[in-house]
Amino acid sequence: MNDQDTSVDVYERLADALDALPSGFTRTPSKLEIEMIKIQFTYEEASLAGQLTRIPETAAEIAERVGLDEEEVTVLLESMVPRRMVRADAVHAAVAAATRKVEAKADQEPKEEPVKKYRLNPFLVGWFEAYLGQPMPETERFAKLYEQYVIEGGGERIFAPRPGPQGVVPYRGSLKPEWLEHEPYNDIDAHFQRYDRFLVIDCVCKKEQVAAHGHSCDMPIKRCGFVGMPPAVPLSENVLPREEAIKLFEELEAMGTMIHEGVYGFTMTAEAPQFVGCCNCCGDCCAILNAARLDKSLKETVQRSNYRAVKDNDKCTNCGECVRRCQVLAYTWEKTEDGRAAVYNRDKCVGCGACVMGCKFDALHLEPVSEDEWYHVPSCFTEWEEKRLASLEAQEK
């Protein structure tokens, strides 16, 4: 694949392929998206990735279709998987794991392993985060390009169509027990009881802000993940025992200036929908939340929860804690004859519950949205993509 085909602009082809995914990759007049691709993908990687779609294929099928050697294609695909430019079919991986488990129990002759399949991975959530995990000097230009990309309308097909790229999980204590029973994927406490150790990673969006501007918010950098890990995984700086993980999570919630964003596709390895981890996002750093501040025409970013804050004005003392906590500017100060008042805008609320848990005067609580507003969380990434495609098609009509 070292011979470059000048008849095809492989970077343009890859940009089009990424935009064709339900996750989107908006094309802009200045083509900043091409510059971001060139930073992350080599010519050979872009040439192959641009010929992939959302349909999983084996390396043999891909090699035959694009006219390349299967071994060469396999090596290139595998090199892109850890950087999240390409993903191995998760359904297939689960089937393979289940097969090995059955074989071990049956103590019989090994069965033939299923063949791994590959597909093109989205920009965000996808290789955007993987790239920002690199050392800062390598990400400065990429971070600045990304922000300008959003300003020029790049977030239109990435963030605005519903369902959003990540979904809000309300703060612990803000939902009634019966609501958690109805939506178990919001039960954070149950998640912490299922595992003994948890993977906690640095916030890549905070790294993006430091790379682009030299500074970020005052929140801790280690605040994302909290993904349950098998007992065999050794404890380390990033793999914490349950007690430490819970303590850190409680400390982050106590700060009150973050939104829990759960990643879709989280039910693929569980028997029933359940919380499996989240990013703890602030409006200053989060690539999704901050998009609305970079491009004020964006009306949707993160997928809202099925709850909204309700304010009791008679109990409100205008202490301003809700204004301080809210990361989507649903609470703002407005001048009044007596000074100023904290005004709530339900249309901006994402139902995170941060304001509810911070109000000392019980002036705020969450309530479920109406059936018309209710969002039925997808059971897997494939279902998320199908819902997203339906939303895009509806918008185009």
Summed up:
The protein is α+β, with helices and mostly antiparallel strands and 397 residues long.
Structural description of this entry:
The chain is built from 16 helices and 13 strands. It is an alpha+beta fold and 397 residues long. The chain folds into two domains: 10-133, Arc Repressor Mutant, subunit A, CATH 1.10.10; 155-305 and 371-396, no CATH class. Strands 1-3-2 form a three-stranded antiparallel beta sheet. A three-stranded antiparallel beta sheet has the order 4-8-9, with no helix packed on it. Strand 11 (331-336) and strand 12 (339-344) form a beta hairpin. Helix 1 (10-20) crosses helix 3. It starts with 9 loop residues before the first helix and ends with a helix. Mean pLDDT is 91; it is low at 90-106.
Keywords summarizing the entry:
single chain; 397 residues; alpha+beta; Arc Repressor Mutant, subunit A; 2 domains; three-stranded antiparallel sheet; 16 helices; 13 strands
